Amino acid sequence: MRYSGFRLLAQGLTGNRGWRPVWRDPEPKPHYDIVIVGGGGHGLATAYYLAREHGLRNVAVLEKGYLGGGNVGRNTTIVRANYFLPGNSEFYSHSLKLWEGLSQELNFNVMHSQRGLINLFHSDGQRDAFARRGNAMINQGDDAILLDREGVRAILPYLDFEQARFPIHGGLYHPRGGTARHDAVAWGYARGADSRGVDLIQNCEVTGIDIEGGRVRGVQTSRGPIRAGKVGIVVAGRSGQVAAMAGLRLPIESHILQAFVTEGLKPVIDHVVSFGMGHFYISQSDKGGLVFGGDLDFHASYAQRGNLPMAEHVMEAGMTLMPMIGKARILRSWGGIMDMTPDGSPIIDRTSVDGLYVNCGWCYGGFKAVPGSGWSFAHLLATGRHHDPAARFRLDRFARGDLLDEEGTGSCHNLH
């Protein structure tokens, strides 16, 4: 069913009795050309682009729970392309271009809002760093505007500019940055993949990976064995566990990143705002809730919940930046399992097992990368060649020392 204003009006006038299911609920087939393990944003986008761009429809997405039940629904929904160094900058630039036409492409409103993103700086050193970043973004073909103190005040008058410890000196403005609706992204890609013949199989946990003679032959699942020509692992924070079924040890650690949302408030924050001295970032959803987050919890974990000391740390940063939010009531919080690589950059590559591919290590960048990740991983699975914007996301870079350290933080998972 194609969605349109006319369709919405017609259904409203007839009691909404004509809507069809958004996707099928098929039984697993005994064999697929490609099996995607993981029914989150990246896995669903990969399946969609395999079908749309490469004409591969004998594809299955296996999800142990329900589609979109992992990190794609557990984040702060920020979309941006303000990366600095080659290797990351061209990839996120490509992903943002896909975001900009995604609702029309999928015939599904993903609520992509390019409300603009402002990274604040609080010292001369930070100003210089953001000036270099802005120039690199412009050279990449993206947009960046360096704002002085009064330029920020004109856009964000509600901030605390006079605080003694972290006075606001200015900000780097990325007008094309913004947010999107996380659930809608998963649903839109799922609907698009299903309509092209991809099987989306929920409640189907992968319990083993079949390997014969150094080549993947399929997977064992809670719903029986499934043979496959190729298998792609796209399970975010569980990547290390699933890869271990094939005897692989990935260079990642799984950490928890918390996010929070307040009660609904009248419109007050028009942009996405990032605090340069507290790793605090905030925006306001279409429902009125303030959505914000901060640092990782700084200990490895597979629990989808965070600890209270980090929650307190995030609240402190928010109050330091904008005391006006102090009386807002927290409605809920959640935690996503982040698979962190040593250099803070992702992995899209084949493994040492023939026919087995991995897409992981997205650290903080997983949501905004969904379209670009799906496109690039589908290209690799279909052609055996790396897509140019993701060409440096190789698994062997850790052995070669060719790290993509975006922050200059070094090889420390928890500092990225």
SSE order and pairing:
Blueprint: H1 5-13, E1 31-37, H2 41-54, E2 59-62, E3 78-79, H3 89-100, H4 102-106, E4 117-121, H5 124-140, E5 145-148, H6 149-155, E6 170-174, E7 178-179, H7 182-195, E8 199-201, E9 206-212, E10 215-221, E11 226-233, H8 239-244, E12 253-264, E13 272-275, E14 280-284, E15 289-300, H9 308-321, E16 330-340, E17 347-350, E18 356-360, H10 370-383, H11 397-400
Parallel strand pairs: 1-2, 1-11, 2-8, 4-13, 11-18
Antiparallel strand pairs: 3-7, 4-6, 5-6, 9-10, 10-11, 12-15, 12-16, 13-14, 14-15, 17-18
Helix pairs in contact: 2-7, 2-10, 3-10
Structure description:
The chain has eleven helices and 18 strands. The chain has helices spanning 5-13, 41-54, 89-100, 102-106, 124-140, 149-155, 182-195, 239-244, 308-321, 370-383, 397-400, and strands at residues 31-37, 59-62, 78-79, 117-121, 145-148, 170-174, 178-179, 199-201, 206-212, 215-221, 226-233, 253-264, 272-275, 280-284, 289-300, 330-340, 347-350, 356-360. The chain has 416 residues and is of the alpha/beta class. The longest helix is centred in the N-terminal third of the chain and has 17 residues, at 124-140. Helices cover 28% and strands 26% of the residues. Strands 1, 2, 8, 9, 10, 11, 17 and 18 form an eight-stranded mixed beta sheet that branches. It has an eight-stranded mixed beta sheet with strand order 5-6-4-13-14-15-12-16. It has a two-stranded antiparallel sheet with strand order 3-7. The protein folds into two domains: 26-75 and 183-251 and 343-415, FAD/NAD(P)-binding domain (3-Layer(bba) Sandwich), CATH 3.50.50; 89-177 and 253-340, 2-Layer Sandwich (D-Amino Acid Oxidase, Chain A, domain 2), CATH 3.30.9.10. Strand 10 and strand 11 (226-233) form a beta hairpin. The protein is globular and about 65 Å long. Helix 3 packs across helix 10.
